[in-house]
Amino acid sequence: MALAPSKDTAAAKDTAAKGSASDREAAPARPPSRTPTRGFWSSTIGKKTVMAVSGLVMLAYLVAHVAGNLKVFFGPEEFNAYGHWLRVMGAPVLHHQWGLWIARIALLAAVGAHAVSAYQLSRRDIKARPTRYAHRRKGSSYATRTMRWGGIILALFIVWHVLDLTTGTVHPGGFEEGRPYQNVIDTFSTWYGNTIYIVAMLAVGLHVRHGFWSAAQTLGVGNARRERALRLTANLLALVLTAGFIAVPVGVMTGVVN
Ligand code: HEM
User: Which residue has the CA at smallest separation from atom 19 of ligand 1?
Assistant: First the structure.
């Protein structure tokens, strides 16, 4: 009958097979085995692609959001009906609010992916910066700095905005669930509501203008022939979004929306 090897024998065989710690140190380093997904994510182009795609998802949301917001100019019935539709979209296939939750989760994933890749790319950029040349201007380019600060302002704004108009936590006046028209008027009847939103809308414009252009380069859409068309599209998108969003507080301030 064959005897099972003792624990000690098995451990000795294992050590012999793997080699001692010092042997392992002396052995040439083997590249770590990576799955294609991990390899893609750890490369700079992979992170830039994630940033570009998640940015385009958020851009699509903003285009839909600005169109929905402009309904405020058609009165409370139409605007509140749009707020209601957000909760029943996908019905009767989807249960109440399921469509909205799917959109929220997709949006949250896009925001998370965008923020993580932006942070990691900026760490990489700082590490790679030459420090040997004291005379070289420290820091990053104007566009990079604007994008970083714009991104931070927008992230803070989104938190404020959700607490203001979705949950009502920081809403001025009594927040009324299901009556977004009145809620929007309350927000834009305060000086700080107008200031926060208008500053954020300007940040949206600047961020989209440069972000759209960068995404086109990353995704390989940009080339010398298309440069003019891409720049024009980026400027147009930024202008339409900023003007469309700012129209709402301006409408309330001037009494057009009341
Ligand atoms: C004047 C400008 C804006 C107005 C009047 C406005 C209005 C609203 C309203 C009324 C809601 C609540 C919808 C509902 O639940 O019934 C909402 C939700 C939201 N808005 Fe805005 N919005 C503006 C700008 C923006 C901008 C610039 C962003 C992004 C950068 C944004 C992102 C969101 C998000 C993420 C939600 C949460 C959606 C949800 O989970 O319910 N909004 N907005």
Answer: 162
